[in-house]
Specification:
Layout (H helix, E strand, L loop, with lengths): L11 E3 L2 E4 L2 E2 H8 L3 E5 H18 L4 E6 L6 H8 L4 E5 L1 H9 L7 E4 L5 H10 L2 E4 L2 H7 L8 E5 L26 H13 L4 E5 L12 H15 L6 E3 L18 H19 L5 E4 L3 H4 L3 E13 L2 E6 L8 H5 L6 E2 L9 E6 L8 E8 L7 E4 L20 E6 L2 E6 L4 H5 L6
Parallel strand pairs: 4-19, 5-6, 5-12, 6-7, 7-8, 8-9, 9-10, 10-11, 11-12, 14-16
Antiparallel strand pairs: 1-2, 2-3, 4-13, 13-14, 13-18, 15-18, 16-17, 19-20
Length: about 425
């Protein structure tokens, strides 16, 4: 498969150098320094439109796409979501505050979380139209608030696992920390009725970055059975999660079909409601990384090349502080040199960062052209779950983030400096 297929849709090779949205990556790295993150609007737009078009074509009632704030959220991204009328999933008061700053209207903010603090709940009631209730204890706390403009969904733990590359990305199995069992959820529904709480929907989520939608079907059946038992009627909401997969490595191409995924869910919900005599709900999908991952590219500069036995280490100026996914669950990546990306791949290299951890690795044993000190490397599929989990480990400063659109460039997050590290500290 062509490694370029992992990059944003506007990626080209001009004068033997990678460009995205008409911007030369070497020039951007020189101007804005490295590590550097780039987001291509055209790719984001295409992903969002693919989802909304698929829903329109396959689901005959109201349907909505929710952007996963945890994948990557900043004010500019929050603003962008509204150009496609997306809902925004927020976990906690911090993400809620970013969504509000990005002018996401109340009716499109929904709040998740397995252990919401008092501050989280207060922010949710103040700014969000929907709270997804994770557990019975949380529900009893929510009952103390006035919920004039906020409705509740209950999160089901379906006990059905999807296949992902690591157990840490599975959320729907019986031993998961997320959600309520069938019995707990029915108890929660009875509590809502007793206390006149605005129960409006059911939500579940089974995992992230999966490719086979088949395990969703029994979970959908279970959730619709519960909806029938609760007695939802009129306008109600149903969210069978999301987390649809993408290819991170050329060995995984092509990307899984969004259209097939959406069609399968829509057909299951329509038929399941027909069989149970349920009115069709507002159907919500949470695509997660499959909206934003391909739009993002990380650019690093090579500092040192080492050969230890048969192993060639290429050490760059970023790593687990801006992308912890390899260290956390062995995520695979690919990359290309910014200059001469089509060069002959002369051997396998492993790319790692400058941090004092053996797990500070970006990728291993990837065929690459000859790499030298000072070269720039571009890692595609870097748009999701990287910057949102970034840290200041070893005093690292988080990288600048650029928005590429119509052959223009805009900084949407400033690079952190030493002052950012020191301003939070107090002396003894």
């Amino acid at each position: 498969m062509n490694r370029l297929d992992l990059f944003p849709r506007t990626t080209t090779i001009e004068q033997d150098s990678l460009t995205i949205a008409g911007q030369n990556l070497a020039s951007l790295a020189s101007r804005f320094l490295t590590p550097l993150y780039l987001y291509d609007r055209s790719t984001l737009d295409f992903s969002a439109k693919t989802y909304t078009d698929a829903l329109s074509a396959n689901y005959p009632a109201a349907a909505h796409i929710t952007y996963a704030g945890k994948a990557f959220l900043c004010t500019a991204i929050a603003q962008w979501t509204q150009s496609h009328d997306l809902f925004v999933d927020c976990t906690g008061e911090g993400e809620i505050a970013i969504a509000v700053a990005g002018n996401v209207p109340r009716e499109r903010i929904l709040v998740h979380g397995v252990n919401k603090s008092d501050a989280d709940l207060k922010a949710a009631v103040t700014h969000a139209a929907t709270i997804v209730v994770d557990n019975l204890h949380e529900l009893s706390r929510i009952a103390k608030y006035e919920l004039h403009n906020t409705s509740l969904w209950l999160r089901l733990l379906p006990g059905v696992t999807v296949t992902t590359h690591h157990t840490h990305t599975q959320t729907g199995h019986h031993e998961s920390k997320f959600g309520m069992t069938r019995e707990e959820l029915l108890e929660a529904a009875a509590f809502c009725m007793e206390h006149h709480l605005p129960l409006k929907g059911i939500h579940f989520h089974q995992g992230s970055n999966f490719r086979d939608p088949e395990p969703l079907l029994p979970a959908i059946e279970m959730a619709l059975d519960i909806a029938k038992e609760i007695g939802f009627s009129g306008e109600w909401h149903f969210c069978p999660g999301g987390g649809w997969g993408v290819a991170y490595h050329e060995d995984e191409l092509p990307h899984p079909s969004i259209e097939n995924y959406v069609r399968g869910i829509a057909e299951a919900v329509v038929e399941g409601c027909r069989m149970r005599g349920l009115e069709l709900p507002h159907l919500h999908l949470e695509p997660g990384r499959s909206i934003v991952a391909q739009a993002g590219v990380a650019v690093y500069r090579v500092g040192v090349v080492k050969r230890h036995g048969d192993k060639i280490w290429v050490l760059v100026d970023g790593g687990m502080a801006d992308n912890s996914r390899y260290a956390m669950y062995g995520a695979r990546y690919s990359c290309l040199p910014v200059s001469s990306p089509g060069g002959e791949r002369s051997g396998k290299v492993s790319i790692a960062g400058p941090f004092c951890e053996s797990g500070d690795i970006l990728l291993e044993d990837l065929p690459m052209p000859l790499i030298q000190t000072g070269d720039l490397l571009a890692v595609p599929m870097s748009g999701a779950y990287q910057l949102s989990m970034a840290s200041n480990y070893n005093g690292a400063r988080k990288p600048a983030v650029l928005w590429l659109e119509n052959e223009g460039v805009r900084v949407i997050q400033q690079r952190e400096g030493i002052a950012n590290l020191l301003q939070r500290d107090e002396t003894l």
